[in-house]
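Please, structure for the following, as tokens.
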Amino acid sequence: MERVIIKDLFSLNLKRNKRVRIILPKDYYKEEKRYPILYMHDGQNLVDPSPFSNHSWEVMNTIDNTEDITGGLIIVGVDSDDKYRIMEYSNYLNNSAIKTLKRNKVSLIKPEGDEYGKFLVEELKPIIDQNFRTLKDKVHTFTAGSSCGGNISIYLGIKYQEIFSCIGAFSPAYYIVKEGLYEFLDKTIIDEDFRIYHDMGTKENGVFSKIYFNEQKVFHNYITKKIPEKNIMQVIDEGATHSEIYWAKRFKDFLLFCFKK
């Protein structure tokens, strides 16, 4: 039985095809129980190596090795689109993002974070819940991603608090969205039981990453005023770069945080 199921869906909200990878726990076909579920971005790099780093998130190994704590976990990874990735993963675009999109010859440049969010919660989640044995409630539903995928995890996780209860933001690219993100957060009440994991390597761009590091500090200080500090996990990974090899290493800590009693 296949543990990775690939489906291609057409999103009415995004008006383009999206490839989805459903990664099942090792006992899925032996048990009849229902499982918690984690929605992740850049799904093509969760099991298969990224062409940029030659490493994957190794999520299957991690969910197998944490089964005694999680009881098993379904991961739904949504592949990113090279052309539209920044738009789909952003609720705001800074000038550098706009310039990148122009180089990619995108004709209509706009943030698509809201449309991507509707795809996740209105189109994709009902299909997954109908076809797989998921625990549908928010207590057992999480979202996570890296870089721009970390940005959209923060935005959509907090926007849809009735859907998600824990988010993982790995090496977020705050500089792209920070103006729009903090404007959104200023207007949003976050449930005190909501959990936020966020991390950063000290060498995100290969050297000491002062910009990345400072942006993480700003976010941490901001979010501690919104929810109890016990529901926040901040990780600073000494020497880590902007790569799947380090996100894979920290992925277990995120899962354990989400399942912490």
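The chain has a mean pLDDT of 95. DSSP finds nine helices and eight strands in the chain.
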